[in-house]
Amino acid sequence: MVSGLPRKPQSSVASTSPAVSKEAGGDEEASKLAILGTEADLLRDALRLHIMSRLVELETLGLLPLIRLGYDFGAEMTTSTDKLRFLGTLETVISTRPREQNLFTLGLLFYTMQKMNTYRPGLVRRCLGQIRRKLHLTINYPQTDQSAWLSSSLAALANLAVGGPLSEHFSSSL
Q: Does the reported pTM lie above 0.90?
């Protein structure tokens, strides 16, 4: 819910109080919006800290909710240690739940890693294993058409490598 609100720069949030912005702008709505933005920033930070303190418990979640948490809060993780800890937990969940892996989770995982500006070789290897499995299905069972899945996942992997946007490709392939 708060991920849609833009984060305020720390300097402007700390230096401007709601009373000052009300007097300066004369607009009560702008003052309320500034307060709402500050509260959203505080809520976002509190949620991120809570998530990072409960990483072991997050392994009981499904793969998709965990990837979604990374999508929502991944860019907000400030230290690379937090990012690596989160991606390590994600790698554990992926290795224990192979049936939950599909094209959507694969694409969302690549997009999440791209948004976090991190690269975890173990996660990419596991996704390459899924691509290899689909290729094996195509070779051994030609009646199963896996071409759309393969092209979409390879495009997602290529976009992760170059840092390009994934949204245009996945909206047309799903």
A: no
